[in-house]
Structures are given as C-alpha cells and as structure tokens.
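Data availability (excerpt). The following record was deposited with the supplementary files.
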Amino acid sequence: GAGAAAGRGARRQDRSGNAVSAGSSASRKLPKLPQVEPDGKQLPLAAALVSPERMLALWGDKASTSPAHIVEHRPCRFFQAGHCCFGEKCWDAHDGRPQEPTEQNAAWWEDSGQDSSWWQESWEASGQESWSWWEENWESPEVPSCSSTSAPASAAPDGGPAEPALPAPSAGLRFVVEAGAELGRLRPSDPVGRHLAVGPMRLRIVGGAACLGCSEGHWDPQYGMDLLWDHGRWTSLVVSVPPDTDIPFNVFRIDQSCEFPGVLQGTRRFNIHESRWFTWSANFCIHSPGVDRVLEVRFPTEVAALLWQKSEPDWDEPVPKLETREARREDFMAFPGRAPRLRELPPPGGQRCYTFDGPTVEGAFATLGFSLYLPPGYGSAEQAPAGGWPLLLFLHSMHGRLDGDMNLFYESDTPVRLLLGDPGCPRALRERFVVLCPQCPADQDRHDGGGVWLRRGWYEVSTHVPEVEAALRSLLDCTVEALGLDRARVAITGSSMGAYAALELAARWPGFFSACAPVAAHYDLDPLEPLIERLTQAQELPMWFFHARNDEMCPFAPMEALVARLRRRSRAEVRFTAFTDTWSNQGHCADRVPYWATPQSPGQSALGEELFSWLAEQQLSGDRYK
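Predicted structure:
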C-alpha cells in the first residue's frame, strides 16, 4: 500500500551503480507532472505542473499506489505539454477530461480555435501574466546550480553592475547512453524530412538541478540538457553541479512534429514546445562526486531500446543498472592537462562535442562547451592544403545551445546543423574548413539559461567578462596547435548576438582573423568610434555583412550606417548583402541567406557557396599586421 511504498523510499544508485536507499519520499522534492484540474478549469499556461499527490487524487489506483512508487518507477508512458498519460488514459490539461492518448498535437489546437494567437492575447490581457509583472515579481529559484563561469555576483557599492564572486567549488557530471548496434544504424528524418546525423532519436536528461531543467522543485522537460549523438551513443557535455549531493533524474525522448524558421521567441517558441511529445525512462538518482572530480554515468542499451519503442515498462521490474566512472576533471576536458592534444578526434566528415576549462583571470574562469567538425579530407596528406587546414569560428545567436532547448543541431539554420549531412550544406563549408562552434556560457543573473557573449548583463548595461574572452582565445590557440591548422587562415562568422561578438573579437584581437562575416548583426555598446578604429586602422580585415531590411530584432539602419563608415576608412574589402526576409515573422531569419547552398523559402537567396569560398581564400600576410 501507500505506507509500505513510501517506507521503501526512492531508489538511487551509488557511484558503483548499486541500488541504495535515498530516504523517504518526504525527504526530497519529487518530480512534478503537467497541471490538471478536476473541475475542468482552464489554466493560463499549458505546461503548468502538478504533484504526484494530485494525480493520485484524480486517478486513484489507475495511476499508482503511492507518490514513492511514482518516484521509484517511470511515472508515465509519454507526456506532451498539456497532457499527462497513465496507462491507456490521458488527462487533458486544457479541458479536464480523460481521453485516449494521441500522437497528433496540432488537431486539438485546430479544433478548439485556441491557437497560439489566443494564448498570446490572453497573456498580454492578464496583468498578472504580463512581461512587466514577471520582471517585477520574479525571484530566483533555489535549486542546485550548474554555473559555467563564476558564482552568483554581488552588488557593486555604487549600485552599478554586479561584481563577480570567486568561482564556487563544484563537481561535474557526464552522461553516456549506449545505443547498441541495431539502434545505432537507424537514421530517421527530422520534421521536414531531412536525414541528419543526429542519431535515431533526440534524448534529454531532466532532473533535480538547474542545468537539468529543475526550477522551484519542478522538473520541466522543455529545459533539460540534451544529449549529443556521437557515432553509436549519446553523450553529454560535462556539467557543473554541487559536490557530494544526491541528484535525481530521468532520460527523456523528445518527438517534435513541426519547426519554424527564425529565432524561436515568443509564440514561435511556444508552438515548438506544444508540438513535442516526451517519453520518460525509469527514475534514477546518483550522488555527485567531490570538488574538481567528474562522475561519468553510463546507461545500458536497454534504456535506449525502451525509449525507442515508446513501450510501457513493467513497473515491477528493477531499475536498470548504471555503470559509473569517476576521475579528475581535467581527464574529461578536451585537452587533458592543457597538452596540445585533443582527447578524441572527430571522424573526418563528422562532429564531436567537448568541454573546455579556460584559464583563470582575476580569480575566475569560464567553461565552454564546443563542437568541432573535421572535413572529409582531414588526415590525408594528399588532400591537406598547403600550410594546413583553415579554421572557421562560428558564434551562435542568443539562447542557442549545443545541449538544450533551441538546440543548434535541431532548431537552427547554422553551419552546425548543415554539417550534419544536410543536402543544403555548401560544399566549400563541408570540404574546406575545420569548424569550431563554442557555446556561450549562461549568465546566472538572467535566470533564463541564456547569456551574452563576452558580457555580464544586457549589452548597454553590461560589463565585460574577461574570463570568457580568455577562454575563447585559449580554445582557439589549443585547437590550432593540436590539429596543425593554418594560423594565417582563421575566419570568424556569427549570427545576431554571435555577429556582435564577431565584431567585438575582431576589434579586440587585431591581426588574428583573416576575415569576418557578421550575419544580422547589432552593436549596442557606446561609443561606436573605438570599434571602427580597431577594425580599420589597426588591421586590414576583409568583412562581409548580411542583413534583412525588415529585421525587427536587429534593425537594418544602424548596420547600414556602420558599413558605410567602415567602407570609408578600411583598407580591406567590406561587402554588404541586403535582402528582404519574407519567410519568417520577425525578419530575423537571416542565416538561410549566407550559410545555405540551396534556397529554403520562395524568393530567398542562398549564397553559402560563395561566402565560404570567399572566406577560405582570405589569408593573413605580414603587411596586414600593425
């Protein structure tokens, strides 16, 4: 009964993978499920949450015999925003009625008439659900953090931007899910029919830490940590967690029925979330290692097999046994011991993701996740260019992630996505470059999982973060040395926030980059004159700008004016491609023009072949330094 199950407590596994007791269900917060109301009351947010106790009150013995049983085993077969499923029935959070589970999400919206515009209007009309209300009343949730830079900042004495504190002691976790030979060979298509090298399915870790999608004790699968397909297995970046702490978690499968071009903000992000279905694994709990140690957690192939089949597991079956390995943090970094040697090279023509700890600057350091792509000819003496392979540094836009929501491998039009094998990938990008894409560290003061490249705060009211700049420079230097790349051909490109960062780095490191290609750029730091001075007088830097005339997020006029000033003063070529974005709702889906080889929308230009050929031809020479 309920008492007996609660007395057993939630299972967890120790560092050796053995099942041990984690205490009674009352001793820690439980994962929560989608909000439902017995009276059919409609909720303002479709993905609100509810406790297992409420589900028991609604479903009785159709759900489970106790909250502890829910924690101990998988609480539901699959879950969609607004839907919570137990066995053969599904409780609909929108109208409060049980219904049969369905794989079709869009039908409910179409039949109800309450589409994304209805939700947006309701959101704006409710004073307690407006953006201004949340800005005034939001309080930071107190959950185990996963900081990639320093500890929470302290307020400056003069009331200005906060000063960073020293880094908090932390441990690390890394997850590996084995696919097995049969499952590893599958290549399903994405929502629009492309066959990409992202593995048989999209997996995500969700659990009891902020970086695993936990907020105020609730687990939200929309904001967990994505695993990365790595040639027969899924792996994660190393994430920082509090040392010697119990951390419960699940593995989720994500199925998504649609995608939208452009930046996924506002209703577009809401629509993406609403199109997703989640399948849960069994519940696990591990104990994090000590300070500066990393625990690698390996799942057996049966976990991936159950998620692939979307099958209801036998709740009486034992939780699958995990394998764990603990080592020094530096042993899991991309360049162990900062030696000029990469821990494990990607296969030629493929990508792999790594974690990198930057140098300590003023008592703080930054950790960067990054992806690295090697061209098919890498390692072949016959195909290697004279002087070595060129390097392309790509900086992503705001909220873009390698390991989370708005994933660059799934929800982007960037080189990272194209290099997965998309037929729209330019041949010059695929065959002529080593491509490096770092992930922007999260700003812990923002509470939204995002950050701004090189800054703490919001652009014009922000401060420079020297440890992030130092980490980027060190990562580039280590990559060039370890792979024997051509130091005279290191090009940089970026989109939106990444384009701002490309301009900033090119100005801060004169003579470092051979060329720069900002896409949908903005530059909100005053004054502008020092930027122009460093881009034109301290170096000869070829530049190629791309911008939509109808961009509502990064206005066209300021960039047009900046390009005009650069052209008057630069000793190098400055190109500017302007166009009208007719395929997105904000005019900010610019990546499709410079990065793709084939048009993806009517009336769209695709200049990727031309851009990457041009970037590959640019080279530093002695007279371009000053």
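Summary of structural features: DSSP finds 17 helices and 31 strands in the chain.
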